[in-house]
Amino acid sequence: MKKTFEKSTNKPSKKLLKIYTQTLIVNACPYCRSKKFYVHGKYKFTTRYRCCSCKRTFIPSTGTSIHYLHKKDLFLDFAEIVRDEGILTLKEVCKRLDIANLTAFDWRHKLLNSVPKINKTFNKKIICNEFCITFSQKGRKGIRDESYQSNFTSCLDLNNFSQIISVSDGKFIDNKLATVGPLNDKHIKRILGPKLKNVNKFIYLGKNDSYQKTIGSKTIEFIQPGMISNDTKFEQKTEKIRKNHLGIKIWIGINMKGVATKYLQMYSNYFCYRQIYNFNPIGKLSLNLRYVWSVFTLMENFYKTFIINHTVKDYILPTKRKWKTSFNYSLAGSEIPY
Q1: Residue 124 region by backbone torsions, left for phi larger than 0, else alpha for psi between -120 and 50, else beta
Q2: On the CB side of 117, how many CA atoms lie within 13 Å of its CA?
Q3: Which end of the chain has fewer CB atoms surrounding its CB within 10 Å, N or C?
């Protein structure tokens, strides 16, 4: 049975008060990451703090997914829907919560940015492969989205596909957007470099020769598509990767009606995380991520850098939405989506 929600009022609910008093934990300044701060009065129903280093003031929700929200109670209702039912279409969310389409769009991406990072360094043996999803500029005003072209020639052109590298240890699968266009050794090194420190054996399931140049001294084994191994456990692991690739393509193409390449990494992170863990966007793990607001507001800048430096595409028609506080927060490299 579907839940029904009441419109939020100016008075905070017990649910919101519980979030501020029990879920949100202040360990450092969200602006400069300094751990030296002190209580600096109150702000509405919560505590205000002041940083000893950068002198800025902040509250427990600064930088999180509920930062700068006027309808926090309604946002918590939305987060519960995502937690219990997964990501629904924008039309369904707008209907159930009586919110605007842009609001539902923004809230979805704030939650996607709050998926906990699993920057895992794999040990001993890993399995790697890549898959592609059609390059899309869905939602970008003033341009026709290439992902809807029916021209057979353009569909065969690698320049029209986003290349995603998958790495797995048999349990967790990590997908990273590498490039748009042909995949070369520079893209592979950028994605795989930090993950290969403790790897003894590297098994590749595809046909790209660039992996041999990138992996170097690591023991590398090529398993061509269609080859059958006598190792049952290994076959189960490779089948899991192939199902992951097929599953994310079906989910993005059919359930989500297509996703812009700008946001593809976030959707991929969510899909992989949900394969193993229960995603609770209002739990302590997700709600205490204080880079969410900065990444959400700077996504266009990250996308621009990615397109210019790592793809064959041209960066055109930038979005005009801007926020004054986007650059006020310090970001670690692992927190940047690309």
Answers
A1: left
A2: 17
A3: N
E strands, 46-122, are: 46-51, 57-58
- Min mean pLDDT across 141-155, 297-311, 316-330 is at 141-155
Q: Which amino acid is at 169?
A: D
pLDDT of 6 > 50? The answer is no
* Counts for the chain of helices (H) and strands (E), in that order: 12, 8
First to last CA, the chain: 38
Q: 40 and 18 in contact (C-beta within 8 Å)? A: no
Q: Give the span between the Cα atoms of 105 and 227, in whole angstroms.
A: 43
Mean pLDDT of 196-203: 80
Whether 170 shows a pLDDT value over 80: the answer reads: no
**CA torsion, ordered 167, 170, 171, 172, to nearest 10 deg:** 0
Does domain 123-274 fall into CATH 1.10.238.10?
no
| Sequence ranges of the domains in the chain | 123-274
- Neighbour-count burial for 222-242, b at 16+ CB within 10 Å, e otherwise: ebeeeeeeeeeeeeebbeebe
pLDDT reading at 323 higher than 90? no
